[in-house]
Amino acid sequence: MKYRLLGKSRLRVSEASLGTMTFGDEWGDGDHRRAKRRKSNATYREAGGNFLDTANFYNRRHERKIRG
User: Fold this and answer.
1) What are the helix (H) ranges across 1-68?
2) What mean pLDDT is reported for the chain?
3) 63 burial level (CB within 10 Å; 0-12, 13-18, 19+)
4) What average pLDDT score do residues 7-16 get?
5) What SS3 state is found at 20?
6) Whole-angstrom distance, CA of residue 36 vs CA of residue 6
7) How far apart are CA 10 and CA 60, in angstroms?
8) Residue 1: its pLDDT value, please?
9) Inter-CA distances, 45 with 10, 12, 68, Å
10) In this structure, what DSSP letter does residue 23 have?
11) What is the pLDDT of residue 54?
C-alpha cells in the first residue's frame, strides 16, 4: 500500500480509500451482505489501508438527523 501525508497535519493515509456507502443497515442487508462487508474491511486493513470514506450523506437516515 502506498501512503501520502495529509496536508499540514502530517497524517499518513493510504492512497486507496475504502468507500462505506453501502455499509449501513438501510440497504436491506442480511447476514450474507454483512459478512461480505466485514470481509472487505478486513482485506483492506490487512493490505495496509487506513482511509475510510464515511461521508454521512450516503445514508438517508443520517441525512435526516443532520437536517433536523
Assistant:
1) 31-46, 60-67
2) 80
3) exposed
4) 93
5) coil
6) 29
7) 33
8) 94
9) 20, 14, 34
10) G
11) 80
Tell which residue, 61, 64, 67, 66, has the closest CA to residue 27: 61
- Tell me how far apart the alpha carbons of residues 38 and 45 are, in angstroms, rounded to a whole number: 11
Amino acid 11: pLDDT:
93
Q: Is the pLDDT of residue 35 over 60?
A: yes
CB-facing half-sphere around the CA of 50: CA atoms within 13 A: 11
46: cell is 490487512
Contact 51, 14 (CB under 8 A): yes
For residue 33, what is its C-alpha cell? 451482505
User: What is the pLDDT confidence band of residue 47, given thresholds at 50, 70 and 90?
Assistant: very high
